[in-house]
Amino acid sequence: MKKGNASLFFAIAAMTLALSLLSWSVSFSREDNDDSRDLPPRAIFVAPEYTGVVVPEGEDVSLDLSVRNGGRQDELVLLELTSVPKGWKGQIKTYSFEVTGVHVKSDSSKSLTLKAEPGDDVGPGDYVFSVKGQTQDGALVSASDVTISVVAKEERKKPEGVLITTSYPVLRGPTDAKFEFSVQVENKLDEDTIFNLMADGPRNWEINFKPSWEDKYFSSLRVKGNLSETMAIEVKPHALAEPGTYPIKVKVKSETAEAEAELRVVLTGTYKLDVGTPTGLLSLNAYQGRESRLSFYVKNSGSAAQSDVKFLSFKPENWKVTFEPEKIESLEPGEVAQVEGLITPAEQALVGDYAVSVSVEGEKQAKDLELRVTVKASTAWGWIGIGIIVIVIAGLVTLFVRMGRR
């Protein structure tokens, strides 16, 4: 290629490249101008990252606050907290200082922090903070709310190195009974540990730790690492304890671990009946086929009410024993009821002494009354006997007189 032609070729190529670059630049400029035309003339948005949060009682709150300029011109946005709940302190800030205004370029945003600090008297509840942003000329305004829900702080539990469990934490029975709880102590430590045993119960109650099925007491328990031991807790209520529910707190403790458990004893009171006669005599006289009456009392000497108290009798064959009343519907503690026992010997009963037993059966309690019944001959038969004797004597006298005349 000649030198003149080569120069012409490179000149044409350079001009072509320049025209291409100019065309691309114009096109890019148009696209950029088209994008900017999609934005509104002016627009601002002020909003927190989260509009609602839940925090424990007494803790500070820090939330990201976004200030965005969505318009085609740069804006100076003024910021303020228009509502701060009572007992709280609030501010809008950066990492180091408080902010009341921020410059935001077109189609960009700035990130700030909303900081809220509760006072000592701030309790659980919902607290609303209001944030407002407006342009310097006041033409545009954006506002939003943040709700902080404060909940009661949960107490942190110590890591448990020991665990107390029982299958029957509540036992029920009369006041004069002994209650025995079966408790399992599980050692979660890797080494053998001696645990001290403590119990806190009602005043004047006896509470003892003992091996299961053995009558000896102890105050500490050795448990091998990662194993468990079963022990019994024997509880004896005070004799004058009223019916009701009584809590008993049990604690096992070592230098590195401790655990507590609550047991409950439900006392129904004591069930006790006393039966007797007003005079103390347990004997009576009776006649064949005739009803005899014996008065006796039934007293509730326990601390629990007795209901549906019934009467049973054990008597000789063909005898009849009834009671008035037939049963006692209810007998309160300390209350006394009088009962009439009606005893009728058999018509063929011989003269002599007989045993009659009366059983008084209440709720979880029964009492027996042993009676001696003396059966006597009827007075009518006595007079008949005397009449027969008189007739016999009169007949003999008459016979002797007649024989003497002859």
What would a concise description of this structure say?
The protein has 406 residues and is α+β, with helices and mostly antiparallel strands. The chain has helices at residues 3-38, 379-405; strands at residues 44-48, 52-56, 61-69, 75-83, 88-93, 101-104, 108-118, 125-135, 141-151, 162-165, 170-173, 179-187, 193-200, 206-210, 220-223, 228-236, 244-253, 258-267, 273-276, 283-287, 292-300, 306-314, 320-324, 327-331, 336-344, 352-362, 365-376.
Number of strands: 27
Determine the fraction of residues in helical runs and give it as a percent range. 10-25%
Which structural class matches the secondary elements?
A: alpha+beta
Order of helices and strands: HEEEEEEEEEEEEEEEEEEEEEEEEEEEH
Q: For the largest beta sheet, what order do the strands appear in spatially?
A: 2-9-8-4-6
Q: Tell me about the biggest sheet?
A: 5 strands, mixed
**What is the molecular shape?**
elongated
CATH homologous superfamily (4th level) name of the largest domain: Immunoglobulins
Total number of domains: 3
Taking pLDDT < 50 over at least 5 consecutive residues as the criterion, the unreliable ranges are 24-35, 155-159
Gyration radius, to the nearest Å? 52 Å
Quick check: average pLDDT?
86
At the fold tier of CATH, the topology name of the largest domain is Immunoglobulin-like
Helices, by number, come to: 2
Ends: how far apart? Answer: 214 Å
Strand residue content: over 45%
The CATH architecture category of the largest domain equals Sandwich
Q: So what's the CATH class of the largest domain?
A: Mainly Beta
